[in-house]
Write a structure and sequence with these properties.
Elements (H helix, E strand, L loop, with lengths): L21 H14 L3 E6 L2 E7 L2 E7 L5 H10 L5 E7 L7 H13 L2 E5 L7 E5 L10 H13 L17 H16 L1 E3 H6 L6 H7 L5 E5 L2 E4 L1 H9 L1 H14 L1 H13 L8
Helix pairs in contact: 5-8, 5-9, 8-9
Length: 270
Amino acid sequence: MILAAPAVDPTIATVATPRLRESDLYPPLRAHLERLGYTVRGEVLDCDLAAVRGEELIAVELKVGFNATLLIQAAARQRACDSVYVAIPRPRTTRGLDWQGMLNLLKRLGMGLLVVDPASPVPVQVVLDPRDWRQVVDQVRRAAILTEIAGRSADHNQGGVNRRPLVTAYRERAIRIAASIGRDGQATTAELRARGTGEQTAPMLYQDVYGWFVRVAKGTYRLSDRGREALVTYGDLARHYAGADAKEDPAAETAAGSSTRRRKPTSSAT
């Protein structure tokens, strides 16, 4: 669980929060959880937000309003997570039957509630922590979520945003391979592995799930038009990995070392 739920402060719920999008809720939620020591990733296997701390796995479902779809999605996440929260913009008021009815329903379903106002001094308020969830956990699904979180180098997706295809762990590895090939125009699998693209480099190039790679000779590949487009779509990651590969390329280091050794100090005429 994130925190013991504080009492709702009625003074912060009397002013309407400006209309927000789901994507506006994600940054303050991520910052809140990271301050508490969680590793946070957006859009993980249908979870808007998944966070792990030690052995604890939690999910947060984001919506701009409280509705049946939100509850259905949150209930599905309970199959694999220790705790599930729903997150909505801070409501205009917490007085009335609707608010109390929502809290009662969430309690009965074993879900927590977070309210978000990015402009507030306290942008995330924990209104309700979920009670202990006794359902039998789907261990296969849980392991898949944890594996996906561990396989991503950082948080390259923003929960609630789908402007580009999600950066899964597999897609991130493919982007790294594409960025490394794009650096020199073509590359062998041995050269790519030497730059840190991983042991799955050859199978990924052969399978070419996204249509990014073209085989030009045995063990040698270049980028297709779709591959070059991907480097633009995922420009932030492509630039990151192009720089990382330059540092890790042993051939480049050897060449640099040889060049240094060939240079001799010049002596001035006396």
